[in-house]
Amino acid sequence: MTRMQKTSFILLSDTHDYQFGDNASSKLQLLVPKVEVLLHCGDLTQVGGIPAFKKALKMLNNFDAELKLVIAGNHDLELDEGWCKAHLEEDEDYLDDHARAMENPIPAGVHIVMTHGPPKGFRDENLGCENTLHAVQRVKPLIHCFSHIHEGYGANKIVWDDEEKAKDDLVNDYPQAIDLHIESGKETLMVNAATLDGEHQPSNAPWIINLDLPSS
């Protein structure tokens, strides 16, 4: 029998140069609790640039997380492989993955999937990617975190049956964590974690999730 371990996550994306506590609504100025894993799904900056990336790294350093996983968005212009590998600190790694989902499929058994853009049909304002949807349908991860489409902010648990039913919207109780049980191979938590809303205002709180993961 697979041994499960409760793991805490904080999910955010599309911060676009935003610093938590700067001109924010009161809920975004609350202290963020310590978590084990931080996921940021891209668009750290508005137009790239070394000063903006330094500011973004400073923002991420304010989060107390054992592991921080960050991917680039379409606004993060300098985050190419060559530049990153030349400027990384000793304790930082660049994970190579330039191929699209249809060219470099997500391997079976993956529990957490991060993309910048949404899958077609889920919190995408009809702008999602069909290839991403097919990849997520095949793998059925426990969490798929994404954004890019700010207006799609929110989260749903998806049941992968014949109708691909989306359960009711989750209520974000930030800074309190949401305890969830996701049935492996049958359900996926879809999270659009955009920090900025459709008007590019920092009105959306991060998602803090407690999730049971298989223990290694």
From TrEMBL:
UniProt-listed Gene3D superfamilies: 3.60.21.10
Entry-linked InterPro entries: Calcineurin-like_PHP_lpxH, Metallo-depent_PP-like, UPF0046_metallophosphoest
Residues annotated as domain Calcineurin-like phosphoesterase: 10-151
Protein name, UniProt field: Calcineurin-like phosphoesterase domain-containing protein
